[in-house]
Design a protein that fits this description.
The complex is a heterodimer.
Chain A: E1 2-6, E2 16-23, E3 26-34, H1 40-44, H2 52-57, H3 66-79, H4 85-111, H5 126-136, H6 144-159, H7 179-199, H8 201-207, H9 234-263, E4 279-281, E5 301-303, E6 322-325, E7 331-332, E8 349-350, E9 373-376, H10 385-394, H11 398-411, H12 421-451, E10 471-480, E11 483-492, E12 495-502, H13 504-509, H14 520-525, H15 537-545, H16 550-553
Antiparallel strand pairs in A: 1-2, 2-3, 4-5, 6-9, 7-8, 10-11, 11-12
Helix pairs in contact in A: 4-7, 4-9, 4-12, 5-6, 5-7, 6-7, 7-9, 9-12, 10-12
Chain B: H1 5-11, H2 16-29, H3 37-45, E1 51-56, H4 62-67, H5 75-82, E2 84-88, H6 96-109, E3 115-119, E4 122-123, E5 132-133, E6 136-137, H7 138-147, E7 151-155, H8 156-161, E8 174-175, E9 185-188, H9 195-206, H10 221-224, H11 235-239, H12 250-253, H13 272-275, H14 348-354
Parallel strand pairs in B: 1-2, 1-3, 3-7, 7-9
Antiparallel strand pairs in B: 4-8, 5-6
Classes of the chains: A alpha+beta, B alpha/beta.
Amino acid sequence: MTRIVVDPVTRIEGHLRIEAVVENGIITDAFSSGTMVRGLEKILIGRDPRDAWAITERVCGVCTTVHALASVRAVEDALNIAVPPTAEIIRNIMMATLYVQDHVVHFYHLHALDWVDIVNALKADPKKAAELAQSFSKWDKNTPAYFTDVQNKIKQFAASGLGIFANGYWGHPAYKLPPEVNLIAVAHYLDALEWQKEVVKIHAVFGGKNPHPNYLVGGVPCSINMNEVAAINSERLNLVSRLISQADEFVNEVYLPDLLAVASFYKDWASWGGGLTNYMSYGEYPTKGYNQPESFKYPRGVVLNRDLSQVHPVNAKDTQEIKEYIASSWYDYKDGDSVGIHPWAGETNLNYSGPKPPFETLEGYEKYSFLKTPRWKEQPMEVGPLARLIVAFASGRTDVQDLVKDTLGKLNVPVAALFSTLGRTAARGLDAALAMGWLKEFYGQLMDRVKINEVSTFNGEFWEPKSWPKDAEGVGLTEAPRGALAHYIKIHDGAIANYQLVVPTTWNGSPRDAKKQRSSFEQALIGTPVAKIDEPVEILRTIHSFDPCLACAVHLYDPQGKHLHQVSFE
Amino acid sequence: MGQSIWNSMEQKGYSRRDFLTFCAAAATAAGFGQSGVAEVVSAFEKKEKPAVIWMHFQECTCCSESFIRASHPIVLDVLLNILDLNYSETLMAASGFQAEKSLNDTIKNNKGKYIVLIEGAVPTGDDGVYCMIGGKTAESILQTVAKDAAAVVAWGSCASNGCVQAAKPNPTGATPIHKLIDKPVINVPGCPPIADVMMGVVSHLLVLGSTPELDSQGRPKEFYGRRVHDTCYRRPNYDAGLFVESFDDENARKGYCLYKMGCRGPVTYNACSVIKWNEGTSYPIQSGHGCIGCSEEGFWDNGPFYQHLASFPGFGIESTADTVGMALGAATLVGVGAHAIVTNIRKRPVIAEVHEDDQKEL
């Protein structure tokens, strides 16, 4: 029996540590630990609720915008503010843009190197690579000259030190791609890096910048005026249109073909990494307002035990449904470590009880993470693109069903293949394809609104705090690229009295709950083979398939105002 | 910075022929065969690329994300041709033990020559347990990587001045880098900094081979010497007293000044209104939202964002951060009328002429 420690887990957002127990080449137990905390929820207390989007947006710069959106929805929910339809469309354009950008970057820059051996790409025949790429994609860059050029770049790069590619697990027996597929993927890794900076210009048009574009309680900050250069006008809309077309080509002619090409060599990964059997989605892309979840593009619901015949309703405001536990987390509850608490009533005091750093292992410590452990009706849930697709599939959404069936057919694998590391990675690609289609649809809707001059982007009816009730509470639900995200707010006398975030990686990456049930990361690792103990690329494959975001996952909420030791420097 | 492999061989008395033989052997050993020799020769003749370590502490990775949005140069050229990014938790292939090895090797093999780029603040509360990597505290890692560095750059507001986690009541004791190490730090604040500003700082250090001139807060004057307000294209509206009164009102749709909506442009030193964001696509004010002052120290605690600043005296465009104190940033409830002291009323008809609808207001 060997205990493997992977820390830092790289190519993620934030600070994650994985400790896995391996027996006879198979993982038999695993522990997921978040090792950084910032205390943002405590910082939010007492501030203007209209500022909360800016503070919470800084939770994460990778999935930038999702916390801003969850936050303005929470405040609007608390204060009964309806957002104008044009503003809702612009918010949908922002979110769909993020899905597309974030998923492409995840596939190429955060996940691909678990499957693609960059050094092996040097052995490829560029001509054969071009023939292969042209057989599954119409992208006009895929020529022999292009692949030769990329190969030369890598040769030169390898000769002068490998930089970010140094010390990878190159040559590991778990890498299965032929040299030509490796070369295609590496070439597109480089192209994706260049392309991703383009698509986010859509965020800059409507939000002024990316990362961290601006949001606004009651709508969006930009105004539309087709007779003004200093507003959203025809030039701005043309720019967005061009960026959407460019993104459409990249997703459909580069990302998805590459995903299928790589996946076809790793079908054995359709039997590992499935983990939990429960899936939850809050639903996303409102088309008739935030309070009409039945009109969302992605439906809200829970699928239990992989039973696709039934979708259970989710009510995030029901204090019996969603609760957070700290049995294995570095916090205290006043009623003891075994209770679970609904976020509105949340109560947590930071209390690190792990080993004094520097340390080698967290083995033997009952508490081992700064992540809390959320549960839906006491059950662990997987969230993310796969959960969204499964809930939509089970809800009878035909667009999702058709796309999923078509992809399974192309790979010649059964539906059960979805419940795996490979299924999770493939689901992210389909999620991007759906978002790409909707992005075009939302843009068309925006143009329709502009044509009839229905361009109001802000509802200021309840902007002034004097128009607010003395006490109010709200929930902002979103489906971030990484999964179900909720912001809970309580407002008292115009200020934030209470703020809590329950985020995707908290669902997926949390430690055990009071009943010792594992969450997604830990459960998914069990049963995974590890060929070389000192080069555990298999652990990275499954963990990266969730696209972890630790800065989001770790937070602190402290209504008791417990004194936390501070050191000041003069 | 650094010398090429050819240079160092030449100094040791090897001939050009020896060098080429060595390159051919290296190409074969690396599996390139004869076809790769030319590339190897070229690589070994080039100046050795400076080794760079990029650390993440208490942050949200927006600085890394901004960095890869750069347009000139594009990040690909930087990663392949300008520097050797040997440690970046966001991009590097290696994890765990192999990642730590990359870090340790870089420090050991490039003593006094490598550059450290830091994203994030360092929590000093409770013995540093609020940020640990590989079982070590961020603070201990910072001291290790900074000790033999040739230069230390603090990316973004987290590393430069603490940013959001250092906002009151700063629960984890988040501390900026310059307060923790003994050597000079180049502060590049912003949440995040503009991508092409980051590239500007990198190329100043690595291509020009010099430290950019810094102001009293350690920021490159090149990018932080002007207030957003003084270089804002909406500034003439301010001078003419033409303001947005509510989001998406008639004035907002005409692109008037956002001062009354809480814009921090008048007290924020940054390049947003000149360089703009995402290859010059826009900047916050252009897209209808006031500047929130994200490159200024303590901006999270500088009053609610939608409360407008107190009036400020009419200091000119020549003022810099060194001569105008941060006290100007204190938001109060003083009426906006007071700003008329500096309002150039004479300009108003000139500006308003563009907006014919406004004639009735004059």
